[in-house]
């Protein structure tokens, strides 16, 4: 896990000293945002989720700029998704995504069978209800990285059984300028139109 | 050879976890009382052993044995105490107790954001992994004397 702490003469990349540093930091971010709200009517949980997603989005934007320096320009949706599954996931979690599927209409399902942020919680239903808040940051991360690569997206996560992150559904990837021209109502309808279709393995 | 039971205490004497496998005789007192007695005895013996030692001690108190069982003790720098009772045929198991701490307690309790530290461990994953690990040990057996 450990590695060079600075880029050397041969251009080694920066590496995180230990993945556990990020895990503990993420844990504390979630704990801080989920602290009991003195005003129960303020929509605290939804707000906390969006704050975590926002943090992830900003980190994803930065990683999107930082990581693909050695790769060619990402023009195709599939290249962008492969970048997420391999490069981004390796940078964040020292592993690759376990699966990538699509319905060829803009909806993609990314599958991680042992998502590192969920592994310590177990493999049964004990903490299943608590899982979504530990996925919000990563949803934002994917969204931010795609934004940097020029794709507008909507990312949602679901967990059917721990520690598998069953699907990180990346909905309706379009080049950024096209989406801005369409506007959000179209984006939503495109996503919902894509949901019912068969999703095939790539 | 056999494993009887295992206690996990924090630095404040809270029993974080208790498991038993081949325990034929109970103490006859409530479990909470048993934990307090065990922790108090360990606290005293550890203090006594270090004070009476004729040489500088590296690891301190490691184990004691009676005519029927052997108590193995491992303490981490953070004050977590792992205590395992076995029969007399089991040799030093410091590496086993260290594994329980580092590969099970740290991985499935400390790293689990939903397990508050300093309280009894509720994680089913920790319990099941600990049980599997202890049952896989070469000296785990029901043939207790």
Automatic annotation (TrEMBL), chain A:
One of its GO terms (biological process) is endoplasmic reticulum to Golgi vesicle-mediated transport. The keyword Transport applies. Its main location: endoplasmic reticulum. The keyword Phosphoprotein applies. It is found in: Endoplasmic reticulum; Golgi apparatus, cis-Golgi network. It comes from the Eukaryota. Keywords: Endoplasmic reticulum, ER-Golgi transport, Golgi apparatus, Phosphoprotein, Transport. One of its GO terms (cellular component) is endoplasmic reticulum. Signal peptide: none annotated. May play a role in vesicular transport during the biogenesis of melanosomes. Belongs to the TRAPP small subunits family. BET3 subfamily. Part of the multisubunit transport protein particle (TRAPP) complex. Heterodimer with TRAPPC3. The heterodimer TRAPPC3-TRAPPC6A interacts with TRAPPC2L. Interacts with TRAPPC2L. This is Trafficking protein particle complex subunit 6A. It comes from Rattus norvegicus.
């Amino acid at each position: 896990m450990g590695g060079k702490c600075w880029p050397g003469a041969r251009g080694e990349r920066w590496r995180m000293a230990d993945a556990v540093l990020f895990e503990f930091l993420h844990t504390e971010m979630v704990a801080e945002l989920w602290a009991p709200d003195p005003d129960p009517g303020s929509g605290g949980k939804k707000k906390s989720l969006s704050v975590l997603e926002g943090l992830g989005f900003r980190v994803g934007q930065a990683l999107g700029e930082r990581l693909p320096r050695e790769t060619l320009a990402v023009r195709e949706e599939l290249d962008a998704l492969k970048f997420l599954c391999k490069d981004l996931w390796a940078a964040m979690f020292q592993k690759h995504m376990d699966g990538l599927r699509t319905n060829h209409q803009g909806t993609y399902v990314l599958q991680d069978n042992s998502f590192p942020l969920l592994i310590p919680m177990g493999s049964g239903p004990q903490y299943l209800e608590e899982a979504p808040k530990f996925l919000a940051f990563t949803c934002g991360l994917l969204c931010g990285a795609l934004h940097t690569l020029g794709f507008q997206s909507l990312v949602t996560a679901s967990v059917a059984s721990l520690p598998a992150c069953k699907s990180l559904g990346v909905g309706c990837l379009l080049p950024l300028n096209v989406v801005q021209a369409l506007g959000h109502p179209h984006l939503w309808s495109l996503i919902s139109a894509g949901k019912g279709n068969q999703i095939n393995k790539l | 050879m056999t494993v009887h039971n295992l206690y996990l205490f924090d630095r404040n004497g809270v029993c974080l976890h208790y498991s038993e496998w081949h325990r034929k005789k109970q103490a006859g007192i409530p479990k909470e009382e048993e934990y307090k007695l065990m922790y108090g005895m360990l606290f005293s013996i550890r203090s006594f052993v270090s004070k009476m030692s004729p040489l500088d001690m590296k690891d301190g108190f490691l184990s004691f044995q009676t005519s029927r069982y052997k108590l193995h003790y491992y303490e981490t720098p953070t004050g977590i105490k792992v205590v395992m009772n076995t029969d007399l045929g089991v040799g030093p198991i410091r590496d086993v107790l260290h594994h329980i701490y580092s590969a099970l307690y740290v991985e499935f309790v400390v790293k689990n954001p939903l397990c508050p530290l300093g309280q009894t461990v509720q994680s089913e994953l920790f319990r099941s992994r600990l049980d599997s690990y202890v049952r896989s040990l070469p000296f785990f057996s029901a043939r207790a004397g």
